[in-house]
Amino acid sequence: MSLQKTLFGKLLLLTLAMVILLGSLVSVVLYHSGLDSAQAVIRNKNLAAAHHIRGYVQPLRSVVQYLAAKDFVREAMDTDYRDESRLLELFRVLQDANPTIHFIFAAYEDGRLVINDYVPPPGFDPRVRPWYEAGVRAGPALSGGIPYREIKSDEWLVSFSQVLLDEDGGLRGVVAIDALVDAVMEVIGARDPSFTTARNLVLDHEGRILFHAQDGLIGTRFAGWDSLAPMVGEGSGQRFLEVDQRTWMVQFIHEEPLNWTVVTMVEKREVLLPIMWRILQSVAVVLCIALLLSAFMARNLSAHIVGPLRLLEQRVRDVVDGKALGQTRKSVPLAELKNEIGTISQAIEAVTEHALYHKNQELQRNNALLERLSQTDSMTGLMNRRKMNEQLEQEYSRVCRYQGTFVLMLFDIDHFKQINDTHGHHVGDLVIQELAALVRGMVRATDSVARWGGEEFLILFPETDQAAAMVIAEKIRAAIAAHRFPVPRPVTVSIGICQHRPDTNLQELLIAADKRLYQAKSGGRNRICVGDSE
Q1: Which helix (H) or strand (E) holds 438?
Q2: pLDDT at 329
Q3: What's the rounded Cα separation, in Å, for the pair 173 and 164?
Q4: Domains of the chain
Q5: Are strands 171-180 and 199-203 parallel, antiparallel or unpaired?
């Protein structure tokens, strides 16, 4: 599991790195391609507006220039020239030929106005009208076109005018053409489904708005003109500008003959949001693909690395637990893998078979030996006191459950201290060892013999009454007294025997046996003292 988590973690980091790398690359590509696409749309919209303006304005300018060149238009100012019919007929013909013309008129320095189908209001002086002043300022060239409100209808008009000069260059008047702004705005003010915030407007050379979808802004100064004006000389371009506390992508074209600037604006937010949304979608797709690829790689690596390693781990555990190689080979076919795992498996199995397995067997033998040593007296080979206590507990429990009986025989060597003091502890140890071997050979297989401590021994006779135990005890006493030990004197033992009674616990039984042993010693030693538990 640890290796699998590590592999998953590494693959996850690799996936995140791949997502970051590919996401960044995709984001950059999509951002620039999306921005280029949006710029192309705005540029085309701006070109379309400029072409429409040019196609709308150029015929009007041509008509004004044509009229300004005609002598009879200038001569209409003379005091002896009162026949205006020719001039009005020409105005009517030109107006009928071009539906975009709203009015054609000529105004003269004497204040006279020549125009079809229009009656000026009382006190009307054409010389103070914006179109007249613009023509005079621009003369002798054609004025660039100015917006103004018609004095009677209050409609927004755009006027193109040119001065009428005599042969000496004196001012005779101004000829002009008016066109309704609405006719232009039907095209440049149309909504664009691509961008809801898109808008077109036309500026004059001073930054005043000539055409705009909102009538209230016509004639006002464009808020972004100060930033845009330095770039107008480039002819066309695209910039981000701050207008009305919002950022706009602005595409412009400067119409040199008109000295107008056609501007198309789209709010930057509307341009960038679709791009960012596409970037997020693309990054999400990249992330999903990367995660799927990572999951596939993790599964594949788990199947080809983690899985075999788990089997190899189980194989090693089996060997350590003492199972032979044949017991697990069928369930762990690691050696059949034709890769590094299979090679490692063969090497480890060889090591574990010849080392770990044998070490385990040796460990088991040592454990068994330690178990025996923990239960056996090292000098005599008999049970030690701890093991005898376990035997006593088991026998006592059995007797209490099944209402049986047992007998304890406690004995020790008489005057053993004299043997040690006279002949040394080594000889004393030999006496204890020979006595233990002698007693062990004389008891039944069901009896338990233990070295209880020092020269003291305890025998448990299961399912035995006091009389039967007395017979065995006498044989043991006599055999020990008759045996020739490695000391120049007889060796005897004093024996205490006690039978279990239903109302006696184990501790009381041991105390009673010890008392009988003490009585045997007090009575002269080399004898047996028998009695029930008290």
Answers
A1: helix 425-440
A2: 47
A3: 5
A4: 1-305 (3.30.450.20), 321-374 (no CATH), 385-532 (3.30.70.270)
A5: unpaired
Q: How far apart are alpha carbons 358 and 213 in whole angstroms?
A: 98
Is the peptide bond prior to 121 cis by the omega test (within 30 degrees of 0)? no
Q: Which of 60-69, 190-199, 260-269 has the lowest mean pLDDT?
A: 190-199
Beta strands 260-267 and 199-203, pairing class: antiparallel
Q: Which two tokens stand for residue 487?
A: 């000391």
- Which residues have a Cβ under 8 Å from the Cβ of 265 and sit 6 or more positions away? 197, 198, 199, 200, 201, 243, 248, 249, 250, 251
Q: Render pLDDT for 436-483 as a digit per residue (tens, 0 to 9).
A: 999 999 999 999 999 999 999 999 999 999 999 999 999 999 999 999
Q: What is the DSSP string of 238-293?
A: EEEEEETTEEEEEEEEEETTTTEEEEEEEEHHHHHHHHHHHHHHHHHHHHHHHHHH
Strands 146-149 and 113-115: unpaired
Q: How far apart are CA 164 and CA 175, in angstroms?
A: 7
Tokens of 158: 């755009």
Q: CB-based contacts of 506: which residues, under 8 Å, 6+ apart?
A: 392, 393, 396
Sign of the dihedral through C-alpha 411, 414, 419, 420: positive
Q: How many CB atoms lie within 10 A of CB 450?
A: 25
CA 452, CA 6: separation in Å to the nearest integer? 59
Quote the pLDDT of residue 112.
Answer: 86
Strands 209-211 and 199-203: antiparallel
Residue 290 tokens read as: 């990367």
Sign, CA dihedral 337-342-346-351, equals negative
Express each pLDDT in 328-373 by its tens digit: 444 445 555 556 666 666 666 666 666 666 676 777 787 777 777 7
Sequence-separated (6 or more) residues with CB below 8 Å from residue 186 = none
Q: In angstroms, rounded to a whole number, what is the distance separating the alpha carbons of residues 107 and 86?
A: 16
Does the global pTM surpass 0.90? no
**What local confidence, expressed as pLDDT, does residue 468 receive?**
93
Tokens of 44: 């085309």
Residue entry with tokens 């006191």: 385
d(CA 425, CA 204): 132
| Average pLDDT value over all residues in the chain | 82
Q: How far apart are CA 307 and CA 219, in angstroms?
A: 80
Whether pLDDT at 409 is above 90? yes
Q: Residue 50 and residue 201: Cα distance in Å, rounded?
A: 10
Tens of pLDDT, residues 143-192: 877 777 777 777 777 888 899 888 888 888 999 998 877 767 766 666 76
Instruction: Work out whether strand 456-462 and strand 406-413 pair parallel, antiparallel, or are unpaired.
Output: antiparallel
What single-letter amino acid sits at 332?
V
